[in-house]
Amino acid sequence: MSKKNVEDYLTEGIYGTRLPKQEERDYYLGTLRERIVIALTIGQVMSDKGIQQLENSLQQHKNAKLLINGKIASKFLKVEKELANKYHVPYTIVSNEEVETDIGAVLAYDYAIDKEEIYIEDMNHEQLTKDEVEKKTSFLSKLKRLF
Questions:
Q1: pLDDT of 9-19, one tens digit each?
Q2: SS3 label, residue 40
Q3: CATH tag for 18-121 (out of 3.40.1390.10, 3.30.1330.30, 3.90.660.20, 2.60.120.260)
């Protein structure tokens, strides 16, 4: 192990002790991927698309904790907070203005569980994009007819 120099002590004093996998911790709202039961994107949290899966996970994993992205307006978090209270799962609002992440909420343990699939797939994602393409095409075709 190498000796610490003055800059190391200053950096540690200003920013705190450097944790392993800091980028991963920043992305997953302060926890590691190997600890996560389920992860919702900001869009899923705001549109309540993953609520049923989150509720099922909260029922099954009562010893876990719910981490919620603090950048999301509180009016969009009402359902998530109610579910956490209903199943007596503690939740924490994580606000880190220095880090950009698309993760909206994470249900995680304090230890590794190594769950393979943690993300919820958007069921209607393909359908929405097809509908949007049709709307754009029909709008463009209507516009062309006018001219």
A1: 888 888 777 77
A2: strand
A3: 3.30.1330.30
